[in-house]
Write a structure and sequence with these properties.
By secondary structure, this protein is α/β, with parallel strands linked by helices. About 35% of the residues lie in helices and about 15% in strands. The protein is globular. About 50% of the residues are buried. Bound molecules: 6-hydroxymethylpterin-diphosphate.
């Protein structure tokens, strides 16, 4: 029977002397919850977990694209698309995109994620040439003026190549490197850091009745397998971030099950990136039908994730997230 180990994360700055550091960062633990597909969760002392699991849970994560993983980092979203679910059409001209990148940097973004293909539920695939036409000039313009790390949100190797040639630093693939077999080898050859995300199905159909045996463990197994595949392709494990893919082939209940136990993913030994910003479940539970009204709900979930040791928050509302993080950190002492 396979066991999975979720650290029971604490963030009180008064750490007991025997506490184990979580991923070398701001949180700690001394108990774990043991999960399996066949039996009820069990809470035990962390010392009862296998040594290799403890090693992955506790070890410091190396920097990614120059960003330290021992404090929370904000990834500002820049969608240069006409049809993204919350900001479609707002930044699709290069001058507007540059203005928005500048604004997010001023508000405290640590990295900018640029996407030229909406992956909202129901979205159709964008041809490669068009995706490059949307993203590469914007990356070049930002790189010409700012030293901020830039991530390209794409499933396709030619788009990643054009982005990196224009000054991009990291590849964020919502298809978990399963869409274009050329993307992982390209990242390996160029020593690029990556984010591997879980999705069930393609954006066009993913919200039509998604099903799992056990959403948490199924997503964990998928990411475990994808991290191994990336390593086999030559990507350094230390340069891989993992993301459970909130809203990608998931119901509200699936999203909540993943968020409640998100600390499980630390057992993969990689930093966790989380994208909940303005997503539909925030509107549903937060009584905010309009995406622009979902900042407060998004920030609430982001802080809950940081309290579980999540290292990178992918957000639209950089100002609100930075402000909330500053206060969360200040009152913890
Ligand atoms: N979500 C979206 C896009 N890219 N990347 C990662 N790693 N994680 C996410 O959760 C994620 C992502 C969807 O949000 P958005 O970019 O705002 O919308 P759209 O796909 O409509 O452009």
């Amino acid at each position: 029977m396979t066991h999975y180990y979720r650290p029971l994360v604490q963030t009180d700055p008064n750490r007991p002397t025997d506490a184990l550091p979580l991923a070398g960062g701001w949180a700690w633990f001394n108990e774990v919850e043991v999960l399996s597909r066949d039996s009820a969760p069990q809470r035990v002392s962390a010392r009862q977990a296998p040594a290799e699991v403890l090693e992955r849970l506790t070890m410091s994560r190396p920097n990614i694209a120059g960003l330290s993983m021992d404090r929370p980092q904000i990834m500002g979203i820049l969608n240069v698309t006409p049809d993204s679910f919350s900001d479609g059409g707002q930044h699709d001209a290069p001058e507007k995109a540059l203005l928005h990148a500048r604004a997010m940097l001023g508000q405290g973004a640590d990295i900018i994620d640029i996407g030229g293909e909406s992956t909202r539920p129901g979205a159709a695939e964008v041809p490669v040439d068009e995706e490059i036409r949307r993203t590469a000039p914007v990356i070049e313009a930002i790189r010409g003026e700012m030293s901020v790390p830039i991530s390209i949100d794409t499933r396709k190797e030619p788009v990643a190549r054009a982005a990196v040639n224009a000054g991009g630093d990291l590849v964020n693939d919502v298809a978990g490197f399963t869409f274009d077999p050329g993307l992982a080898p390209y990242c390996a050859t160029h020593g690029l850091p990556v984010c591997v995300m879980h999705a069930q199905g393609d954006p066009e159909t993913m919200q039509q009745d998604p099903r799992y045996d056990d959403v948490l463990l199924d997503v964990y197994d998928f990411l475990d397998e994808r991290v191994a595949a990336l390593e086999a392709a030559g990507v350094d494990r230390a340069q891989i971030m993992v993301d459970p893919g909130i809203g990608f082939g998931k119901t509200v209940e699936h999203n909540l099950a993943l968020l409640k136990r998100i600390a499980l993913f630390h057992a993969l030994g990689c930093p966790i990136l989380l994208g909940v910003s303005r997503k539909k479940f925030i509107g549903t539970l937060g009584n905010a039908p309009e995406p622009a009204d979902r900042a407060a709900g998004s920030v609430a979930v982001a802080l809950a994730a940081v309290a579980q040791g999540v290292q990178v928050l992918r957000v639209h509302d950089v100002f609100e997230t930075r402000s909330a993080l500053n206060l969360w950190q200040a009152v913890r002492g």
